[in-house]
Specification:
The chain is an alpha+beta fold and about 290 residues long. The chain is about 20% helix and about 35% strand.
């Protein structure tokens, strides 16, 4: 049987026409959609993407510069230089041969070759010196050593003592005018305040140590005496610091160094000072 060529053409014509219409429609639709999209071309060179988020830039005044550290250092040096001339060494003629202290105890003078050596500080230009009873004991006269303008020695009279509060007041035998420390307000002392202890630990005169206030109202009992509001500090204090001042960053005396805690005679970094406000009433009556 012969094949009908016209039948073959007609048989595939309509399917091909439908397929062609669908292809043209698809191309037309895609062209229209692409024409309404914004251009996504790469207008900038490729840049690396950071793997870690960068910290924000410090705000104004928040960063610490080397200049800031220099200013802090200069401030500390200035305060210390103002106070040190008024800090003295106190030598008593009696060598009591006191045993080494252990536990919570009052500071003892350092047993030097010329006698026990403690510390004190001038509180009045006329030559009044504040120290501790533990420093002078029952003696009536002591030797004062000043270190401003060259080492100078003076005799001083013990004007009064209070064994309960462990305080003593001396008067230098001289009509000279002496550098004096400004007395601060110990009621304003706060935990974390920077403080300086100045004295003659182990005979090293006018040594300065720095620390912070660990507690501003520490109640404790020492040798049977109750102290309700001692200033606790981690500034290093040793034998010979007894009677020396505890100084704030303004250069004011806020306490009198008088005790430490040494378990088994080991340094612990726990020291105590009598708040200066606790002795102001007695001082005002004695220094006229």
């Amino acid at each position: 049987m012969k094949k009908n060529k016209n039948f073959t053409v007609k048989r595939y014509f309509w399917p091909l026409l439908v397929l062609l219409i669908l292809v043209v429609g698809a191309i037309w639709t895609n062209a229209g959609v692409m024409g309404h999209l914004p251009y996504q071309g790469n207008t900038q060179p490729n840049r690396p993407v950071p793997l870690v988020n960068q910290p924000p830039a410090p705000q104004g005044g928040a960063s610490v510069s080397p200049q800031t550290a220099v200013q802090v250092q200069e401030g500390i040096s200035h305060v210390v230089s103002l106070v040190r001339p008024a800090v003295v060494a106190v030598t008593t003629p009696l060598n009591n041969g006191m045993p080494a202290a252990s536990g919570l105890t009052r500071l003892n003078p350092y047993q030097g070759s010329s006698g026990p050596v403690g510390s004190g500080f001038i509180i009045d230009p006329r030559g009044y010196v504040l120290t501790t009873f533990q420093t002078v004991g029952r003696t009536k006269q002591v030797r004062i050593s000043l270190f401003s303008g060259g080492r100078r020695h003076y005799d001083a009279d013990v004007m009064g003592v209070d064994s309960q509060t462990d305080l003593a007041l001396l008067k230098i035998r001289s009509n000279e005018t002496f550098p004096a420390i400004v007395l601060g307000n110990s009621d304003l002392v706060e935990v974390g305040d920077i403080v300086f202890a100045i004295g003659s630990p182990f005979g090293f005169s006018r040594s300065v140590t720095m620390g912070i206030v660990s507690s501003n109202r520490r109640g404790m009992t020492i040798d049977g005496v109750r102290y309700p509001d001692m200033i606790q500090t981690d500034a290093t204090i040793n034998e010979g610091n007894d009677g020396g001042p505890l100084i704030n960053v303004r250069g004011e005396a806020v306490g009198v160094n008088m005790a430490y805690y040494k378990p088994n005679n080991q340094y612990s970094g726990i020291s105590f000072a009598i708040p200066i406000n606790s002795v102001l009433a007695s001082l005002q009556a004695a220094v006229r």
